[in-house]
Fold:
Amino acid sequence: MASVISKRYASRLPGQLRLFSTTCSRGAFEVKRLGVVGAGQMGLGIALVAAMKAQVPVTLVDSSQTSLDKGIAFAEKLLAKDVAKSRITQEQSDAARALLIPASSLEHLSDVDFVIEAVPEIPSLKFDIFSKLAQICPKHAILATNTSSISITRIAAATSLDPKDTSNSSRVVSTHFMNPVPIQKGVEIISGLQTSKETLDAAVAFCTRMGKIASVSIDSPGFLANRILMPYINEAIICLDTGVGDRDSIDAIMKNGTNVPMGPLQLADFIGLDTCLAIMKVLHGETCDSKYRPSILLKNMVDAGWLGKKSGKGFYDY
Ligand SMILES: NC(=O)c1ccc[n+]([C@@H]2O[C@H](COP(=O)([O-])OP(=O)(O)OC[C@H]3O[C@@H](n4cnc5c(N)ncnc54)[C@H](O)[C@@H]3O)[C@@H](O)[C@H]2O)c1
Structure:
């Protein structure tokens, strides 16, 4: 299996998992139908890759008809580009498009085996959606979130009023895809305190079927990717702010010295400076460790509305 599990993690996980009894025991878990909630940047990418690689029907739910229309049009554009570049045939493109089924409400997810939520990073919105998914989706369905920073344990807790009843919360897990989903191979699979081993295994297996390489971690602020990436970006911004080096020198040394496609300041622009700041605030707030304090320049740039590529101005102009 294409997952990366550290020795330290492997020795910790079973202890965490033994804290509760798992409620559902499965053999090989088969996903015949996927649900995706949120047809934005991430949800659309997840739905398209699931249709292309795992070749499952995908019910794509969004509360905004405009987002659904835009998402489906974007999927068609990406498929046409793949055909034009001979990466897939017209038949494969048609087959993938036919598997994407847009829907306007969560009620359409009553027949899915696996659902991935990708709505905006607003805790109350995610808690509300998971409490509904636990009621609407079949009792065997895995309930996954693509959250960048919200605790999986808290999201899982929202599925039941009784914390002792883990029949729903044990089915909650995070599948944190990297952006852009059709291109990046990595996905983080994160267990909340309540997540069962069966749920974790099913999530790793389905992401592998989607052609992704899974890294597994427990629920901790920033998980793995952002815990490592965001302090790196933040430190690069502090180096700029305190005059250790200029923008181009900072990006050039990391790009040419560590063989990454772009330096930390350009990467921050692509991710969005508001997103970087929000994640640094989670790391700082949840750990109370001063090593995670957000850089003053990062805060000032967000206050100025210079959010990077999406606003046309960040460390670079777009
Ligand atoms: N953008 C990234 O680089 C990135 C990377 C990894 C993870 N994430 C996470 O993925 C999630 C989605 O991010 P995104 O960038 O795709 O956001 P986005 O704003 O592009 O898309 C969110 C979509 O959710 C829809 N939505 C809002 N409320 C809804 C509801 N109640 N029911 C159904 N649909 C609803 C919106 O209409 C929108 O289409 C967030 O949790 C984010 O933190 C983002």
Residues 83 and 90 are 6 Å apart (CA to CA). The chain has twelve helices and nine strands. Residues 65-84 form the longest helix (20 residues).
